[in-house]
Amino acid sequence: MTVRAKKHLGQHFLNDENIAKRIADTLTENKYNNVLEIGPGMGVLTKYLLDKKFTTSVIEIDKESIEFLKVHYLNLSDRIINDDFLKIDISKLFNGEQFAVIGNFPYNISTQIVFKTIENRSQIPELCGMFQKEVAQRIAEKPGNKIYGITSVLTQAFYDVEYLFTVPPSVFNPPPKVDSGVIRLIRKDNYTLPVNESLFFKIVKTAFNQRRKTLRNSLKSFQLTDKLREDAIFALRPEQLSVQQFIDLTKSIENDGVRDQ
Q1: 3-state secondary structure of 102
Q2: Would the CATH topology of 13-187 be identical to that of 197-255?
Q3: Per-residue pLDDT tens for 145-182?
Q4: In 3-state terms, what secondary structure has residue 71?
Q5: Measuring CA to CA, how many Å separate 75 from each of 4, 32, 47, 239?
Q6: Positive/negative CA dihedral, 32, 108, 51, 26
Q7: Ranges assigned E (strand) in the chain
Q8: Strand partners, 186
Q9: Are 60 and 88 in contact (CB under 8 A)?
Q10: Superfamily in which the 197-255 domain is placed by CATH
Q11: How many CB atoms lie within 10 A of CB 256?
């Protein structure tokens, strides 16, 4: 089958069958029987997913892509969801059963896809996908690097992240101006936080929004007691803190009497 390729919503479609198969093979097929592909386009990745033992469904908002898939993948036609992943009620998918997410994600919404996955992590044990390389690296980055930030911490609080491989622009139509990167997120066994989750998110975001400042200065709005502000952790900048240290910091701030507003 010749795969037509087009661009919509910032998406670049694969021309390389080997890369498509390689992405499909990144799924561990562990702890779920259903897989949802986001933005299948003309199905270059989809056909390799359909060869797997799990049940593949796709979600697509582009009418032309949907018609193409219905014609060329007859065994998929009743599992094509014409909707926006970012707007759909996840709990209504697969009767509430566990499912994995995969895709060659549109660059301009890829981070939002990750955050939607985090919000619905109780139902999504795994995500595998292709992102702009810089975004993939940021999600997977460890403390101590300038690209380690909000997305890194919030994702790694709930998922183990692995950067798998880099994909050059030449395998896409139209070719993007940057490399892409494929990563895998596997949900942690314990994917709840031992602290107020809303407060944790607020602390992480506030700290990194002023990332050049020490925590003592960037977290001033939390009106911490003088005793807590003298803790050595407040002399650090946010990129120096591990996920666990952010959790510990949240616990300290909670114990200090601060509550999320």
Answers
A1: strand
A2: no
A3: 999 999 999 999 999 999 999 999 999 888 989 999 99
A4: helix
A5: 20, 20, 10, 48
A6: negative
A7: 13-14, 34-38, 55-60, 80-82, 99-104, 126-132, 159-167, 172-173, 180-187
A8: 126, 160
A9: no
A10: rRNA adenine dimethylase, C-terminal domain (1.10.8.100)
A11: 15
Task: Indicate the residue type of 241.
Answer: L
Here the tokens at position 222 are: 């939390």
Alpha carbons 114 and 125: distance in angstroms, whole number: 12
Contact 133, 147 (CB under 8 A): no
Closest CA to 207 of 217, 198, 193, 194: 217
> What residue type is 48 in one-letter code?
Y
Q: Which two tokens stand for residue 93?
A: 């998918």
pLDDT digits (tens, 9 = 90+) for 88-142: 999 999 999 999 999 999 999 999 999 999 999 999 999 999 999 999 999 999 9
- How many angstroms separate the most distant Cα atoms in the chain? 68
Q: Is the pTM of this model over 0.85?
A: yes
Q: Which residues contact 153 (CB under 8 A, 6 or more apart)?
A: 204, 208, 241, 243, 246
